[in-house]
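Task 17 of the worksheet. Students: predict the tertiary structure of the chain below and write it out as structure tokens. Keep your answer in the requested format; marks are given for formatting as well as content.
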Amino acid sequence: MKRLLDILGAGIGLVVLAPVFLVLAILIRLRMGSPVIFTQARAGLEGAAFTVYKFRSMNDKRDERGELLPDAARLTGFGQTCRRYSLDELPQLWNVLKGDMSLVGPRPLLLDYVPLYDESQRRRLSVKPGITGWAQINGRNAISWPDKLALDVWYVERQSFWLDIKIIFMTVLKILKREGISAPGEATMPRFMGSASKNHE
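Model answer:
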């Protein structure tokens, strides 16, 4: 049932939102250049690596040593708008259609984080990652890493079709309210430093 919801939701979303994809692609190309799509290896089901797709929201500005500047210096005004309304996440509908992700589940995090999870936190890897999830409607990026990962585990232990439907509808409301977009004092989010970390995502 969950996979059927994923296929129908992602398929319909890709068709209905095709004009939005086109407009965003053109604007990103004009404002930031190529590439339009940002790709990155993330941890999927059981920690297996997969490539996640997002609309690009940062430029490639570097310092005198050729290293990328911090996120705050590279996040553009247009990129902030895309993040505010989660428009940068739309290409992940293709990840869902491919089967790498689900519409609902723990957010896919960096592969570097996998060895840092404690035994309980690793349970979040027992389901496919999602475009949205229980943590996203209960604080998103404004809560601590331990709280966020605990909410992911809560979802894994109680997942159901009706819970997924609830999360999808609540996600729409949260996006409209523009809550929890970034961690306090951060342009995006600090890195997860381990199970004892008090950082925010």
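Marker's comment: Confidence is low (pLDDT under 50) at residues 197-201. The longest strand covers residues 37-43.
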